[in-house]
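TA notes. Do not distribute before section.
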Amino acid sequence: MSYYDPARMPSGAPERPGSPTVASPVSPGVGVAAAPGPSHPSRAASADPARDLVARDLVMTYGRSGASAGPPALGGVDLTIRAGESLAVMGPSGSGKTTLLHVLAGILRPTGGQVLWRGRDIARMSDRERTVLRREDFGFVFQQGMLLPELPAIENVALPLMLGGVRRSEAAARAATLFPPLGLSGLERRRPGELSGGQAQRVAIARALVGRPGVVFADEPTGALDQTTSAEVMHHLTQLAAHTGASLVVVTHDENVARWCNGVVRVRDGRIAPDADDAHADADAHAHADAHADSHVGTGRVEAAPTAAR
């Protein structure tokens, strides 16, 4: 048994994948059969508001404050990432999209504003508290994987658990359950240098999800991959995140990657782009039309991207 069937791999990004089904928490060692297409619940209200990640009036300025400070990297961003949904953050280089991810993830402390997670403001946490948060409640997938070259794949995946105090044998056992559903069976003892780019990114996905985080942050996770491998990696990332109930935030410049997420926001000059609401409304209309046309085969209703307050 596996979380899902990794062989169900489409040739490219889907036209418009829907909002993921938030699964009830299960042990990482327990799999499910290959799932049908995801359901598409309404975004009128969050299924679990306590697990929403909420940014309020985020401001981030680098360098010294005062008149000598340059333009803000973030200029007052409001955004809600609902529990269990996937969101692509797009924008040109220098737009602030990566800064936004780093602030949401507690890597950077904002100059102003709030990032609320489970009733707490991440921006007010101590450095130690944010370190624990990133290790235990957030998962990360980076462009280059950032795997430790001297460790075999199984230990790279188990590392976050061991850093959190889980015994080595238990951590390795839990890590091993993620290799079959990611198509990595037999590669547990290989080091990163012995893996292909796509395999290494799937190991990074396993590492991000082994601790069952509430949110997974992926910064250009396919930037170093070809289109075919990119589609494969996004398939695994979105499917496994959806099954475990993790929210997913993907920073990307690639429209094909963004289409794997059920929501898109665009960042421009440190703000959510002012035309985002119109784009989301258009996407919602098209999604409803597609869902209606496909209703005879049981396709659910596809929701538009999250609307960010401006």
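Switch to the second chain here.
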Amino acid sequence: MSGDCVRNLPVKAFCIVTFACVMMLSAGSAVGREATGGSVTSVESKPAKLAFTSKKNGEYVFDTGILRGKLPQGDKTLGLSSAVHVPSGMELNGGYGIFSYYRVFTTNKRYGTAAWDWPSTSKLLSDGAVQITWPEGKERPFEMVAIYRWGENSTLDLETIVKARKDLSNFEVFLASYFNETFPTSYVCVGNHPDAKKRPGFLMAKKSYGDWQMFPRSRKVLGVIHDGRWQKEPHPVKWVIMPRMKRPIGLRCGAKGDLTAVLMAPVEDCFAIATPYEGESHYSMYLSLFGRDIKAGETARARTRFVVTTASSEKEILDLYRKYMKDIAKEAKYRR
């Protein structure tokens, strides 16, 4: 990977908060270690700050010492909310949370308005993780499960698993993260940066490029993006197709330069990154996951990670990505 993905960011000591969403292809695999009966660490043997705590109102709260917030369970099943970077006191999320399940598609078909509106159940697992399940519905021939699990005080893994009852053509989960207005600027790591002599680099989502910008993995996935799914109501979107992403790495940068949120995924799991232009009022970034057929009876997963850092250089961002790839390799070895 080229060392040109981050420019004009100071090199100095930084504090990292890492979220990971793990979703990987696995035909016939069981739902997480809790479901398979594999070994898990009990809540009692872990520091309290590395586990969610359930509240009587159905919410799950967390405080890692670096991040504090909740995983709400109400009328809408949203991602991390009321999230605060404890050292700075800076609020992280917008109204619909971080790592929230938004639109779900198959070829030219949209399943309701958003997954966060679907009926769901949740429970606290024995290791302090939270499992959310969206069961099959009359119009949804699949089950979706999300497991939020703290691994370290700077790392949250989110494993999302889809079990198909019928064939799902070009299945997509459009995973949304809505940030506070103090994160106005988006960048995506592209293979041919127009302002860097076509070398890899982080390209800012400028308004001059268009209102809604989509950075595909390759030309091959354009057929999925243009199959009619994005014309489905409500809120259809006409995407401006941007340069091909070099790696699935996107940034949401704080206005004062004090915090940067990083979203990343393995190349095989994320077929596009989408974002509105700099300063647009959604303050959002989206990862298009899967983008492939899932056969009836198959179980599929995909992975992504979210990192918040107080300052970063290009090398530090790429080191985070390399560490993520190593973590995935270790997890794969554990599963074997």
